[in-house]
Specification:
By secondary structure, this protein is α+β, with helices and mostly antiparallel strands. Helices cover about 30% and strands about 30% of the residues. It has 9 helices and 15 strands. Bound molecules: biotinyl-5-AMP.
């Protein structure tokens, strides 16, 4: 059920610059005027600036520019995703919190968002830089009724969601580098980390971690990733409201996920391939033990990387790192 706070924000927002009287608010929300005043004080803590004038009523002067549980929930048009949002100003990693909560049986669709992570992580425990209020650092808990071996498809699905939202909202031209990187102009803007807890043929839960560089300037990108990372600000010369992006990601994710559960992987595969980086070109593939060059054909029905080696052998890969050959250079860039 929608909370009183959400209803209150909606009423205030819908009256725009006009005042809405305390009397009317208390009638519509069926609470006392003292209770309304208390809610107003709470909203101010979330960064809303509200003007209250005697005889006239209340109006919003400024919407929050910081993320909080309430500001994400407000205006979030989803059915099940993000109905519980947990926001932390600072945490080690939203993945850690998500695992703890998932083991305590929180709902499918619970979302954890942080302003800053002190131990943000990538795959194989690599470091993920997550500076304060510079990006989106969030984890989604899912309890999908699919076989565990299909869980990597959720990474590919998430990548298409991020690519869709970035294309639509920021008018950039994102590409997906298999399996989990979103690149803009060849540089990494976002990464996805899918972790799973499963028993035999049943998934207990999946945590999808999403990291997006939003408002870092070139100088704020840490030196170890300067050559290969970018942010939305750097690509568009514009600061972006992380809250709106989070809401759009959650709304787009919910639709894509529901369609995937209903119809399977084919639509995700074709969308992924429409954003796929270097499809049809020669890439460099590295696994723990070997490395070689091959033509990247696309992704298989199960989400694996589909390649053809230079001597014509088709190969499906489930776990590998890929680089690409920069024309005219001696090196493979990553
Ligand atoms: C990823 O791993 O790309 C997955 C990143 C997932 C981050 C999210 S944030 C919310 C949630 N909580 C977490 O703790 N994690 C998830 P991988 O493909 O392994 O890439 C890691 C590599 O990307 C690092 O080794 C660096 O080279 C590079 N890198 C680190 N921080 C970066 C950043 N902010 N932007 C771009 N590249 C970065």
């Amino acid at each position: 059920m929608e909370s009183t706070r959400n209803k209150l924000i909606k009423l205030l927002a819908s009256s725009g610059d006009h005042y809405i009287s305390g009397q009317l608010l208390s009638e519509k929300l069926a609470i006392s005027r003292a209770a309304i005043w208390k809610h107003m004080k709470e909203l101010e803590k979330d960064g809303y600036q509200i003007e209250g004038k005697s005889k006239k009523g209340y109006r919003i002067l400024k919407f929050p520019d910081k993320v909080s549980e309430n500001t994400i929930l407000w205006g979030l048009g989803t059915q099940w995703l993000g109905k519980t949002v947990i926001h932390k100003e600072v945490t080690t990693s939203t993945q850690h919190i998500a695992h703890q909560l998932a083991q305590e049986n929180v709902d499918h669709g619970t979302v954890i968002v942080a302003d800053e992570q002190t131990a943000g992580k990538g795959r194989m425990n690599r470091k993920w830089h997550s500076a304060k209020q510079k990006g989106i650092w969030m984890s989604i808990i899912l309890r999908p009724n699919i076989l565990p071996y299909l869980a990597p498809q959720l990474t590919l699905l998430t990548a298409t969601v991020l690519a869709d939202v970035l294309t639509k909202d920021t008018h950039t031209n994102p590409k997906i580098k298999w399996p989990n990187d979103i690149l803009i102009n060849h540089n990494k803007t976002a990464g996805i980390l899918t972790e799973m807890q499963a028993e035999q043929d049943q998934i207990q839960y999946v945590v999808i971690g999403i990291g997006i560089n939003v408002n870092q300037t070139h100088d704020e990108i840490p030196s170890d990733i300067k050559k290969k990372a970018t942010s939305l600000l750097m690509e568009t010369n514009k600061e972006w409201d992380t809250q709106t992006l989070i809401q759009n990601i959650l709304m787009t994710f919910e639709k894509a996920y529901d369609a995937y559960i209903a119809n399977g992987f084919p639509d995700v595969k074709s969308k992924w391939e429409s954003y796929g980086f270097k499809i049809g070109e020669t890439i460099h593939i590295k696994t723990m033990r070997e490395q070689w060059n091959a033509v990247f054909l696309g992704i298989a029905e199960d989400g694996a990387l589909l390649t053809k080696t230079l001597d014509g052998e088709m190969k499906k890969l489930y776990s590998a790192e890929i680089d690409w050959y920069e024309k005219g250079g001696d090196d493979f860039a990553n």
